[in-house]
Amino acid sequence: MSRTLEAETSGDLDGWTRWTVVPHRGGSRVVHEQEAVVRKALLRRLAVPGRLVFRADHALMMRAGRRGPRAWLEAV
After folding, report:
1. Counting CB atoms within 10 angstroms of each CB, which of 2, 11, 40, 54 has the fewest?
2. What pLDDT sits at residue 71?
3. How far, CA to CA in Å, does 34 sit from each of 9, 15, 27, 75?
């Protein structure tokens, strides 16, 4: 059985994000999908020159975001 959490975003970024937990090799696997459109003009202008900074920020956010679900799943 799989479980899915999906949320819509609006504001500077419009889109959605989805987390799905599925059975995998005697355990679980988490699949993350996301689609976003940048709406804020300043962010669009900074997209190319700021790409490395945005990617690094996203990677740090995703790494930090794994801690909570991992701790919760280990406790279950």
Report:
1. 11
2. 83
3. 10, 8, 23, 27
